[in-house]
Amino acid sequence: MKKDYSGRNGSSEKKDGTSYAEKNRRKSENKNHNEAHSDVIIGRNCVREALRSGRAIERLLVASGSAGGSVRELTAAAKEKGIPVKETDMKKLDFLCGGTAHQGIAAIAAVKEYCSVDDIFQCAEERGEKPFIVILDEVEDPHNLGAVIRTAECTGVHGIIIPKRRSAGLGYTVGKSSAGAVEYVNVARVTNISSTIENLKERGVWVFGTDMDGSDSSDMDFDMPVAIVIGNEGKGIGRLVRDKCDGIISLPMKGKINSLNASVAAGVVMYDILRNRNK
């Protein structure tokens, strides 16, 4: 007799009549819903109170066609606080809010307050160390940002600098990907990366971009105030940002693929700097 492994009695259904495939589909949907919903502030009143309280907000999402009345007021308040405002599709906002009535507006809360660039320098001073900073130029994948934060905490980085726009922020996925390291690493969010690099150089920091055709990072002397720039997952470092760097460093590539994941490349360079400083 041929055995049927689809279920105890040859059935692919559970006792309640729901198939295993349907159960798994619902479980997947619930997981995605919970992850999307976990850091979302929904509706005009809730968003208004979050802005009023000074809570750390990554960005404000406004449904297309909902820019009138109180939504306009909330949008203006967010921009005044330097919070990015993004117009989005109504269906996407519906999904993000898990079917809850959002009134055309929602805010993505940050899992931690952003710091200032001055706080990063203060951290280095308190530790009695030369500043060690990581700059992310439009790194958009939250998993990459979380992984960079995790490695930064392990290698003694004093702070990470990200741009306000076209970048992952300190949302739920980043916090989870960092395995809790986000609680211990300073993350500053700035309007313009190029001008921030200029400011760092004026304060005595040497800034190195990571790209092809540069000096081998393992051969460099990093016993100085230093910042490394990691570029976007697809485009790499922007031209204007690259021009502001004091130099370019690279990782030796022996295989047929000529690039690494952004967080992996960042991790290798961070450990090169740590080992160099520990000599």
Structural class: alpha/beta
Strand content: 15-25%
Mean pLDDT: 84
Quaternary class:
single chain
Strand order of the largest sheet: 7-6-5-9-8-10
Write the H/E string, N to C: HEHEHEHEHEHEHEHEEHEH
Shape: elongated
Number of strands: 10
Q: Can you characterise this structure?
A:
- By secondary structure, this protein is of the alpha/beta class.
- 40% of the residues lie in helices and 19% in strands.
- The protein has helices at residues 20-37, 44-53, 69-80, 90-96, 117-127, 142-155, 172-177, 193-202, 239-244, 262-278, and strands at residues 40-42, 57-63, 85-88, 105-109, 132-136, 159-163, 187-190, 206-216, 226-230, 247-250.
- The strands form 2 sheets. The protein has a 6-stranded parallel β-sheet with strand order 7-6-5-9-8-10, sandwiched between helices. The protein has a 4-stranded mixed β-sheet with strand order 1-4-2-3.
- β5 (132-136), α6 (142-155) and β6 form a beta-alpha-beta unit.
- α2 (44-53) runs parallel beside α3 (69-80) and α6 (142-155) packs parallel to α10.
- The longest helix is centred in the N-terminal third of the chain and has 18 residues, at 20-37.
- It is elongated and about 60 Å long.
- The relative contact order is 0.11.
List its traits.
disordered N terminus; 6-stranded parallel sheet; 279 residues; single chain
List the helices and strands and how they pair.
Blueprint: H1 20-37, E1 40-42, H2 44-53, E2 57-63, H3 69-80, E3 85-88, H4 90-96, E4 105-109, H5 117-127, E5 132-136, H6 142-155, E6 159-163, H7 172-177, E7 187-190, H8 193-202, E8 206-216, E9 226-230, H9 239-244, E10 247-250, H10 262-278
Parallel strand pairs: 2-3, 5-6, 5-9, 6-7, 8-9, 8-10
Antiparallel strand pairs: 1-4, 2-4
Helix pairs in contact: 2-3, 6-10
